[in-house]
Amino acid sequence: MKKHLSYILFALSVLFAITSCDKETFEYKINGKLPIDGYDGRMIYLSIMDSTRIHFINIDSTIINKDTFSFEGKLNSKDDAMLVYVFIGREEGSRVNMNRNTIILEPGEITALVDSSYKLYATGTPENVDFGVYMDVIDKLKQDERRVYDSIYKDIAEKKMFLPRRDQIDSILINRADEIKKERNDLTYSFFTKVANHPVFIDLLMSYSRNLSKEQYLALTADSLVKKEILKTFARYDKAQRQIDEERSYIKLGDQYAEMFCKDINGKEVKLSQFVSNSEYTLLYFWSSGCPGSYANMPFLGEAHQEYKDKGFNIVGVCDGFLSMEEWTGILDIHKPSYPQILPLPGGKDAMAIYGMLHTPFSILVDRSGKILEKDIPASQLKDRFKEYHQFLQMQEINPATRLSPNP
Q: What is the pTM of this model?
């Protein structure tokens, strides 16, 4: 009897296991919070990257209501987990640029919080928790690295060195930069090793491989299938990018500059037009925190601004990149540029796409009407160009019919 009973119990346990498998679901739910004023009633999108890794495809959307939003759905299996991107809609139909907007879409309940700096923090499911911890440490290391390089660039700018050798730079700063880079590389390698068998491994690798050393990247892509998929993606990317560059209509000389909404050094919201309309000529100087040339040019710009600011000329520094107000003002405190500085608001227009910028620093000279007269004037030649434009201003005072530009 006991033997028969054991068979019955075994059969019931197998049946229960099978039934449990049949009932296993792969549902997900994202509960989001966006405690930033002005977005109630706007659309928020859940997107994936297409095969070119350039374009985004919306897979779901919802409306932000009382600072909250939610998405619900079902995956076919755990292997269908994917990397998704959250975008906030704007009134004119464009999307808000976010500093961090990635979620690993996997079965379970996911919490997504967007903070005031437009960074999204996803928790709730195992991989999102691990990914969030990884990104938090990476963000901190990037801040540390930026502070070190700010000091390095300041030293280079003060000494007016052009492409200095490594041994010409403060060894303490260089060694600290190397330490941070190694820490970032090792942390990333450890994280990718942990998620190597996860469905989003290749997506994550393609997105964050810049945080790996060459040797670490080669070790992670040694598998032939991984290597093949990455090569295919790169080929699609190159083809799509060439097509976009051919079709994109950049703002050209003679066109009107694009308005931008920004903050000044005091945190007050300002428009780019407020600076342009106050001077006969305004140089818009786009710079980025990770570019040595951006800092090396600042002394030349300061000299030109000091000499011509009372003669109808203005220079405005526009930080091109995703910096918080604290990070931005910290950089300015180090380099102390003598001309006005503004920080584009998150969600604004992408200057690189608008003007066809291929690098930073990048400059655009506009007249009072907003007409673009020149692009990318070398900083070392700026005083000479201002001098030529000033001569035309003086000629106009004598003869109002004189052109306001020395360009032919």
A: 0.62
